[in-house]
């Protein structure tokens, strides 16, 4: 369990005394940008950081590489500590750049090892990030937006509405906070082996920032994750799936949840714009761009809604069509997610027997369909529950404020 002292350390990410930081938060400076006009280096992937060094600072490219290692491998954000950079360069960086870390409002550990952070991005917006350790892997579930505009009926983020996109810095900042807490050392001590863009928000609706952040996740000078180990999950923004195929190379997951348009349009309103046939075609194009690519289809099981044998059969048909179009067996992977309830929802989780029966129908037809175990539900960190704490905006704001107050960092503006 992280102590209060640790949390403050994470938040400050350096030697700034608490009082000074408090004053800066009070003035709304930290959250808005400790140095207005300064470039936040968390916003830059390797290509843009190299450009910044060459064009803005008049320095060699390899200096950018050194700085990336300091930030993402050693968690150093204070230029003064970057000892292999000359004094003059450190001063130049100090004047024009900063590495601004998200504020850890609080973090919680589950009894099963799952860990959740509430990160304040500005005085009015906080998001959640969840770490899920499992045999031989550690997966971080990262948010892409504050809230979400898609209004999927069974997802608690939807009830919160949409506030804004997260910047590249705010997305990679989540990875930085978790990796630092875990003592992750890329290429050596890997505590963080996978990232799933399955937190709050629709990542394809915040395309550029998400793609840039995913590039830092996969960069050897960043977190060194293999392409396959970074997964983007979408509710089905068809044109953006095609753009993703052109501009990035990551694993694709699609939130299907229903095997026919009538039901899917009800559960995932985006389906009215991009119905299942168009969505599946986009997935086929994505898979065909590179041999051996599979696509994961997420299917949240809701009692009496989409958990009946006819739904399993329709789902099977869709998955077979996909395999045929891609000409690869098991190109379509199904992930069954038992519905996680949240206050005010009209949906329920099917009982275990119904979940097993649904799975068995798929298995008997030769389809592997793991049921995703519920993790971290004692800290409201399970799929779609992430927002349990934040669903009620007033409660979330109150909690955020309480945490700040407790450390003497209260802010009238929030
Ligand atoms: N907008 C993206 C990213 C969110 S991913 C997407 O839709 O894919 C979050 C995953 O958890 C999605 O598959 C989502 O449909 C699922 N989910 C949302 N609410 C849930 C709930 N209450 N119980 C179980 N799964 C849920």
Write up what this structure looks like.
The protein has 414 residues and is of the alpha/beta class. It has two domains: 19-98, Orthogonal Bundle (DNA polymerase, domain 1); 103-413, TIM Barrel (Alpha-Beta Barrel), CATH 3.20.20.70. It contains 14 helices and 13 strands. The strands form three sheets. It has a nine-stranded mixed beta sheet, sandwiched between helices. Strands 1-2 form a two-stranded parallel ribbon. The protein starts with a helix and ends in an 8-residue tail after the last helix. The relative contact order is 0.11. Mean pLDDT is 86; it is low at 1-33, 387-397 and 407-414.
Quick synopsis:
Residues 134-378 form the Radical SAM core domain. Helix content is 38%, strand content 17%.
List its traits.
TIM Barrel, 2 domains, methyltransferase, 38% helix, 414 residues, rRNA_lsu_MTrfase_RlmN/Cfr, alpha/beta, tRNA (adenine(37)-C2)-methyltransferase activity, two-stranded parallel ribbon, binds S-adenosyl-L-homocysteine, rRNA (adenine(2503)-C2-)-methyltransferase activity, DNA polymerase, domain 1
